[in-house]
Amino acid sequence: MPFDCHLHVEKGLEAYPFKDLKANVIFNSLASYQKHHRQYPQFYHSLIFDFKNEWEQVKAIAKSGKIRAFKVHSRIQQLTENDLEPLVSAYQELNRPIPIIYDAFYYGSALEHQPSLSFLIKLHEALPKTRFIIAHAGGYELLKYFFHLRGLNRVGFDLSFSLQYLHDSSVAADLKKLIRFTPANRLFWGSDYPSADPQMQWNLIHEYFGDLNLNDQDRKAICQSTWERFTSLQPDGTYTYPMS
What we know:
By secondary structure, this protein is an alpha/beta fold. The protein has one domain (50-230): Metal-dependent hydrolases (TIM Barrel). It is built from 10 helices and 8 strands. It has helices at 30-36, 55-63, 74-77, 84-92, 117-126, 142-149, 162-166, 171-181, 198-212, 216-230, and strands spanning 3-7, 22-27, 44-47, 69-72, 100-103, 132-135, 155-158, 187-188. Strands 1-2-3-4-5-6-7-8 form an 8-stranded parallel β-sheet. The model has no long low-confidence stretch (mean pLDDT 95).
């Protein structure tokens, strides 16, 4: 069975095609987390929140160990370059490098709140012990993210949504390049359900695996085991799974 690293549960999982699922659930707000998280104790929980107004509440949740990752989403959080310093300051108060999922899917007309590769790299530099996951692998900017981040071993790539949304575009070739030249311990399969069809995402990743003649060990790592290891922290704040 797959490990879905990018799952939403607010509308339920009745239509989700895979059973005995292991997953990371992303809640798009603190209110959604508070309403729904108790229904899904078997999953990991990640959270988008208003760090300017909700940080004290979220900090208490994070320190309890109930959050596996935070998600930075520039369109939902209405972020600009001016928000980098306060975001870093808030995060440093944890004294624990909880991984950050950075949404890098470019979409919509609000150009001032689109993802920013520059913002991400500055955030990565400011938080030298934190691991980052690029949600949707960069969307139509995937090749740019691949070339500028491939040397940073604290950065992994989540393949959710983009497999389905971009498979009939020129970005499909970029997806293959990313999978071919990125170590399997930095690649993660996910769906972005219900925005994407998990079965289609699953079929497409295996189609790419076949095209690339990827070995069974790497296929299993990408689809089943690596996200959990990449994000796992010891009680003392060090990562369970060393990257070098």
